[in-house]
Amino acid sequence: MNLRQKFSGIRSRLLIISIAPILIVAAALSFSSLSTSTDMLNRSLADSGESTAIFMASTAELSMYAEDRATLESLGRSALRLPSLAGVGFINSSNRLIAVTGDKQLMNAAYIKPCIQQGSFDSNDYLHICKPIIGSTRDFSDFGSQEQGEENVAPEHYGWVVLAISREALFAQVRSNIYIIGSVTLGVVVIVSILALRIGRSISAPILSLEKTVKDLGKGNYESHAEEAGPIETRALAKGINSLATAVATSQEQLEQKVKNATRQLTLALKNITDKNTDLEQAQQDLMSAMAAKDQFLARMSHELRTPLTAVTGFSRLLHQSDMDETQTQYSENIIAASELLMGTIDSILDFSKLQEQALPIEIIDFDLREAMESLVAMQAYQAHSKSLELVLIIDPDVPVQLQGDPTRIKQVINNLLSNAIKFTDQGEVILHISVIKDSKEKTRLSLQVKDSGIGIDSESQNRLFQPFSQADDSITRRFGGTGLGLVICKQLLELMNGSIHISSEPNKGSTFYVELPLAKSNNTPNTKPESTSYNKCGEKPLADDKHNTVIQHLKDLNILIAEDNPYNQQLIKSILELLGAHVITADNGEQAIVQFQQHAVDIVLMDIHMPVMDGITATAQISELAGDEGIPIIGLTANIMDNERQTLMQAGAADILFKPLDEQQLIATITELVGRTPIKNTLEDNKQTSGLMQSVASKETLQQELNRLLQKLEQAITEKKRQAAAEIIHEMQGLSGIFGTEEVTTAINTLHVTLKADSASNRTTTLIENIKITINNL
Questions:
Q1: N vs C: which end of the chain shows fewer Cβ within 10 Å?
Q2: In Å, how far from its chain's centre is CA 721?
Q3: What is the pLDDT of residues 102-131, one digit of tens each?
Q4: Whole-prediction pTM value?
């Protein structure tokens, strides 16, 4: 038992509570009494010494006048008879010690000098008192006679008498007082301790007995009962514990009976489970046999169906190449399309069956991503062209080309998505955009987006897309056909390759399928960064002509950093520059721009002025400082800027400022001029080369979607009275409309901005927002 446990009992605590106040009061009273008595003794000693010194000073007048040492010593011996007087000294007016009686060391100059100056001197063990010896007003002759009839002269100072008074008697009295007080206090403490221990024992003994009873109950000895003794409280507690023990014993008996019953039921249940397991094993064997029969059936039916179907397709193609009239040609085309559709359905059913059994192998081989995607787009180009659709392939420059994976299955997934996009789109475009989500030395995670401007899908129908034999609604099946297995197969194939797929769509606004796929980089062939590539509706590269190659050469191999907070603007400018041959690095705010500048070799920076976290002016100043003496050309991008902001930006280190809407020729000319390349000639031919770049990387529909999305956020911010958030959203909309030069939208947004700053009425704000909606929809 440690010290803390030892003093945590009732008896110990009661003892401490009883003794502690007594000790505290005794200590206080003792201190007060001793202090008072000591002060009184000190004062008595000092008063006695003062009286003695005055008496001796008057007595020693004649002896000091005659400097009679013998008489003075005799006088000192007489004084030593007084208690506590340890020494007597006589000093003449020249401060010379004439006579000493008692301890001569007490008449040391170290004691006498301060005593003469102050009248007394306290050296702890001794008290020195000095009194002057002064002659009376009468004049004494050498013979002791007095001249009569003469005037009294002034008193004459003969010297001092010094008394050394010992405090030993005082200390003895103090010690005696301490002894008496201590004895009384000890006696009281002993008496109180005895009483406290007796009271504590009368309380703790029954409690210890109760503790023993509780321990016995805890060990399962329910027959143990506590003795009902001690104070009323402990007796009541003992009675309650005994009642509890009785109740626990009864409950234990009931519990044991329930356990016996449960054990009997569990034994019966285990027997039933054993019997059912036997039945399940037999059913599993039957299922395996049925699956084997199904596989054999599918394999045979596939062979039996493919053999005649191949013949039908082959002879239909031969027939189509022969001389036929228009009606016969249409018939043959219908036969070919129907046979290809049937072949695709058979393949989908077989793949789905293998995926359900997890028997579809995924191989890992080296392949060229660009070649794989270009072949897909080329295959789908004819179908897109037949519907007058624009089919676009965009591969970001930072996407590695040489990868490891299963190109067949990857192409199967993307081909299905492209085929669906073309099938459900009557006008507009279908875009396959490939970008990097995360990249490392050995692996990369790609994003493959298939976007169309087709019929779209509502949120309720989206939940059924990845279910077997299901489409958005039955009308789609009747109108477009299909088994409803394509997206299910895509999802399961991607899961086998550790990838994923999801959709974002709205009715009548198109759909976007997002595929994320991790792939390893090839070790055999070095990865070269591809230039961004797009295909027109005929499946050909529209920027492959010599004129655009001339433009691309101006920005070829340039590393350009874009700092733009609006993701749509950022992607748009990035795509334009990549089409012109540049390698683009992006940042969402000024702080990220500084980090990207430190991590990459940058030739030129395009800096938006108004951004969150860190604005463009601050980022420009810090990047200029990081660039040092070599410098870095920085171009500011803004929809509007005040004169003081323009001056501050130029002082921070910007080389030029371009205003939105951006002019492609001006942008290219400014970049080439600042990096020291040959500027683009302002000729009609050059205008044709660079015109329409905006339209080649973004459509009117996507611009409308982005502006409407921002407008919805703006309405919500205005409703919730978040002025700062509304101002930031207006800035995004100004930049976005400025990029495309939509003057009507920009004017409407600026009018709303001014109205919000003036804190106008809400009905005016609502009218302006409706006006912006109409302007956007009329683009």
A1: N
A2: 28
A3: 888 878 878 888 888 888 888 777 888 888
A4: 0.34
